[in-house]
Amino acid sequence: MDELSARQLREKIVAGEVRSAEAVAKVFERIEKFDPEVGAYISTYRDEAFETAEDVDRRVSAGEAVGVLAGVPVAIKDNMCTTFGATTCASKILENFHSPYNATVVEKLLAADAVIVGKANMDEFAMGSSTENSALKRTVNPWDANRVPGGSSGGPAAAVAGRLCSAALGSDTGGSIRQPAGFCGVVGLKPTYGRVSRFGLVAYGSSLDQIGPITRTVDDCALMLGVIAGHDPSDSTSVDEQTAHVPDYLEKLDQPVGNLKIANVPKFNEGADEQVRAALDEALDVYRQLGAEVLDIEMPHLDYAIAAYYVIATAEASSNLARYDGVHYGHRTERPRDYVEVYSKSRAEAFGKEVKRRIMLGTYALSSGYYDAYYLKALKVRNLIRNDFADAFGECNCIVMPVSPTTAFRLGDKIDDPLQMYLSDVYTIAANLAGIPGISIPCGFDDKGLPIGLQILAPAFGEAELLRIARMFEANTDWHKKAPPLESVDN
Amino acid sequence: MEDLAYKVMVGLEIHVQLCTRTKMFCGCALGFGEDANSRVCPVCLGMPGVLPVMNKEAVEYAVLAALALNCEIAEFTKWDRKSYYYPDLPKNYQISQYDLPLGANGFIEIASGSGQTKRIRITRAHLEEDAGKNLHTAGDFSQVDLNRTGTPLLEIVTEPDMSSAAEVRALAVELQRMVRYLGVSEADMQKGHMRFEPNINLVVTKDGAEYKTPIVEVKNLNSFRALERSVDFEIGRQLGEFAETGETMQMGNKSTRGWDDAKEVTVLQREKEEAHDYRYFPEPDLVPVELKGRWLKDVRAGLCELPLKKQMRFVSEYGLSEYDAGVLTAERSTAEFFDEAVKAGGDAKRVCNVLTQVGLKLANEKDCSIVELGIESEGVAQLCGMVEAGDISASASAQVFEQMAETGKKPDVLARELNLIQKSDAGELEAIVNKVLAENAQAVEDVAGGGKKSKKARGFLLGQVMQKTEGQANPKVVSEILDSKLG
After folding, report:
1. Could you tell me if B288 and B385 lie in one domain?
2. Taking residues B9-38, what's their average pLDDT?
3. Is the pLDDT of residue A171 over 50?
4. Between B395 and B410, residue with greater pLDDT
5. Are residues B287 and B318 in the same domain?
6. pLDDT digits over A102-123, tens only?
7. Which member of A97, A323, A363 has the closest CB to residue B91?
8. Do B139 and B32 have their domain in common?
9. ipTM for the whole complex
10. Is residue B362 part of a domain?
11. Looking at beta carbons, which residues of chain A come within 8 Å of B83?
């Protein structure tokens, strides 16, 4: 049962062949056995999960209608608000924060009869690329316990890879879904900005943040996206049905895309490790064999993506995180002398190093006298990058890139070198700046047995075709079928 | 102290609370005086993960007001975050408008006495969300009430075009009347619906040279009176200070003073304008707004004749006194009711008298507006016509008016029922006059005798006629008959 995809599991549950409660029991068995080592979850909800599972089972046996994720155990990143448990963002400042409302995606999961088994670990406030910035928990890569799972959605990716849930939701501001999916050998999709409601997603970089699925297969990814996509009146930046229809992502998933033109950006990929580049070349060969045309293009402004990103994302973050001040909720310092100390001490005590670094960077970038030189210039770069993509998509269906320049690095390797850490997002950040969708799918392993991811980028709201293109690869390769050897970790 | 010649320069920063059904960016109802933190939701509390959703009604109200202020309306506008830390601001940033306000370069006309008006330029008008309130009533800690948080505010900034406290007051009063006419704000100063912060300084002439005194911003003004007094106080204070120190306006020496309503003085709050850096940047959670086309046309259709214009028309077109025109135009509904009654045939001055002397008094007693008394404007026109025609006396019209409100009946019906119709039939009245003259030979003689006695006797005879007709004779007609009889 571990190896059933979410979609297969749902079908068996609906057919009465498997009970959701059994699937949930199996997941909790694995969580108990492996999560002490993996550390994917900040909190789990056994009672609530069984309650939902049993309700689904009862309705199935009574012949009642059930949702498209009926009985499927899922995990969500701990930056999505839930009325059950805490919503911590892996931060001391929200360690005991209980949300009075559910994020829209949580409501949608529940409406689809998904079973939320737990809230998964992450870099504090989604700031990081290794999940090492979590103030509450350490997560390791299920493929190698000495290595990071990637980040910031390291918990959800490790949970999916480790079969500690069937599917998960992560969030991606600069690669936080795709990079950990790549590091953990699973599928991760960052949808188009505006495709999925951000209401209830604790904001990091508001103009970049997007929630998306992390799954073991492309069809699970399509299934999950179908559940969470669509306009939300509570999120003005979510796009309405008239502007961009939400199609049935599963309907044509197995139909290969004809006349497929794939763009490669060889110059930009030079910085990636040799094994990563080799895997990318092999992936292109797979597509060629499937009849695709591969063209080499240049995207002159991608080199500036990281610089622009770390201005825009931190500027927005400095403002978004201003509310954690110890006044209204969250951690408050003991015995402040005055209200200014409530702010300064509460924040000094409860924010981690990387969060402070980014708040300071962003505050600086927005300061009077520096705004034009940093923030405004970064917005201009962002536009140039958007134009690069628009030009590229005039000639091709999609663009392929590595997900990350390396495979999963060792725990502790980059934690004291923020610039090195930032560079691990070099291939993923542009999609967030341009607002376009990007997917990471397994495309091989390096000589250490660590997964390598293939990133495919598509035009805005082109998720349906993007998933089909990803599915073409998946249908002709076996990489996604490999599971990490967790049993050995357990010994 | 030598006498210094000076000019006063006052600009206003004004916040007007819009009376929308819900808050600026969430579904909470607006309130005043409810239990603390009872009108809040995750969005206006700034909980993690929430997003604002723009209230379209607030944008409509704001644009309507900006149009009335003769502003250019921005076709493309957007929202910005203004960052500062304060406990009554849960997100620690305020959603406001920075470089693209929805309205700019407008003006407002204010009355400047004896039928003249003065134009005060409006720099900009933009929408933003209000903060909550910090309460310092308990022990050694403060509390925060966030009911007001997120209430839509229209911020209006004027140029420093006002040159006296009276002009500042006139602008405030005019703006209050205007936003009430437009129905976009209740504009109650005591409830904080309108907040005025004057920026005051002087241009002093000394030894042939002009010197500008440092700008002072005054806060904590809760009434028109406080606003006016504070400006007057500042003029005197700044003049004295200039004479003493000679300090002039420079970058960074603007100060903020608070108005002490009891002592009627301004008190220094912030010595030097702190170098505030609000770190404005575009609000990424909201999409830009386009104000044009059909939508703008519909909003523009909500404009009406503005109160000052109406007031001046009442003077020029109807010959009303400025005072009466001011009373009638204080509220839009009263002014429009007056206009309708005149259009229905009522004599303007007569209608004015009925409305100002009877109507407003009655409305005041019933704590409602004139239109809510249940009287139709045609009825008032008819009532005024009856007085003009001499069918009823002016004093009886008050009684009829009250009964119209009470019963909803027409004035002619009421006048008959109440026996208030005057006798104006000359033939009938002449017979009565003849009888009175016959019965009072001494008085007739006295009238003929002239002098002081004559006037008194004539009055007596008129009184006798009125008595015999039980007060229903038209005194004007009786007077004419008496005149013809007594020569």
Report:
1. no
2. 96
3. yes
4. B410
5. no
6. 999 999 999 999 999 999 999 9
7. A323
8. yes
9. 0.96
10. yes
11. 319, 322, 366
Q: What is the mean pLDDT of residues B268-296?
A: 89
User: Is B215 part of a structural domain of the chain?
Assistant: no
| Residue in B191, B223, B96 with CA at minimum distance from that of residue B152 | B96
Total domains in chain B come to 3
pLDDT > 70? residue B2: no
CA separation for the pair A376, A387 (Å, rounded): 17
Q: How far apart are CA B39 and CA A226, in angstroms?
A: 36
- The answer to whether the bond into B369 is cis (omega within 30° of 0) is no
Kindly state whether A366 is in contact with chain B, defined as any CB-CB distance less than 8 angstroms: yes
**Touching check for B290 and chain A: CB below 8 Å?**
no
Q: How far apart are CA B51 and CA B44, in angstroms?
A: 9
Record: contact B284-A363, CB cut-off 8 A = no
Statement to judge: residues B154 and B115 lie in one domain: yes
- The residue range of the domain holding B98 is 12-196+276-296
**Residues of A carrying an active site annotation:** 77, 152, 176
pLDDT at B331: 93
pLDDT beyond 50 at B390: yes
CA distance A45 to B406: 68
What is the distance between the alpha carbons of residues B58 and B23, in angstroms, rounded to a whole number? Answer: 8
SS3 state of residue B351:
helix
Contact check, Cβ <8 Å, A103/B49: yes
Residue B261 lies in a domain: no
- Separation CA B56–CA B123 (nearest Å): 24
Fold of A6-259+405-490: Amidase signature (AS) enzymes (3.90.1300)
Q: Is the pLDDT of residue A154 over 60?
A: yes
Q: Which two tokens stand for residue A429?
A: 């950040």
pLDDT digits (tens, 9 = 90+) for B57-116: 999 999 999 999 999 999 999 999 999 999 999 999 999 999 999 999 999 999 987 778
Residue A1 pLDDT more than 70? Answer: no
**CB proximity A305 to B under 8 Å:** no
On whether residue B216 sits in a domain, the answer given is: no
Please give the structure tokens belonging to residue B324.
Answer: 């009466």
Q: Which residues pair with B73 in a beta bridge?
A: B103
Chain B residue numbers with beta carbons less than 8 Å from the beta carbon of A328 are 45-46, 90, 144
Cβ separation A101–B142 shorter than 8 A: no
DSSP state of A196: B
Q: Are residues B481 and B411 in the same domain?
A: no
Closest CA to A382 of A313, A462, A296, A461: A313
Whether residues B382 and B466 share a domain: the answer is no
The enclosing domain of B457 has a CATH number of 1.10.10.410
Q: Do B357 and B281 fall within a single domain?
A: no
CA atoms of A182 and A157, how far apart (whole Å): 9
Q: What is the pLDDT of residue B274?
A: 61
In whole angstroms, how far apart are CA B297 and each of A137, B63, B73, B300, B303? 57, 11, 12, 5, 10
The amino acid at A50: F
What is the pLDDT at residue B472?
79
Among the partner residues B52, B54, B90, nearest to A323 by beta-carbon distance: B90
Domain boundary at B368, B388, B417, which? Answer: B417
Q: What is the 3-state secondary structure (H, E, C) of A281-316?
A: HHHHHHHHHCCCEEEECCCCCHHHHHHHHHHHHHHH
The C-alpha of A177 sits at a distance from chain B's nearest C-alpha, in angstroms, of: 18
A380-432 pLDDT, tens digit each:
999 999 999 999 999 999 999 999 999 999 999 999 998 889 999 999 999 99
Mean pLDDT, range A312-330, rounded to an integer = 97
What pLDDT shows up at residue A67? 98
> Which residues on chain A are in Cβ contact (under 8 Å) with B93?
319, 322
3-class SS of residue A123 = coil
Residue pair A155/A149 in contact (Cβ under 8 Å)? The answer is: yes
* Interface list for A 376-435 with B (CB within 8 A): none
pLDDT at A237 over 60: yes
pLDDT tens by residue, B315-362 = 999 999 999 999 999 999 999 999 999 999 999 999 999 999 999 999
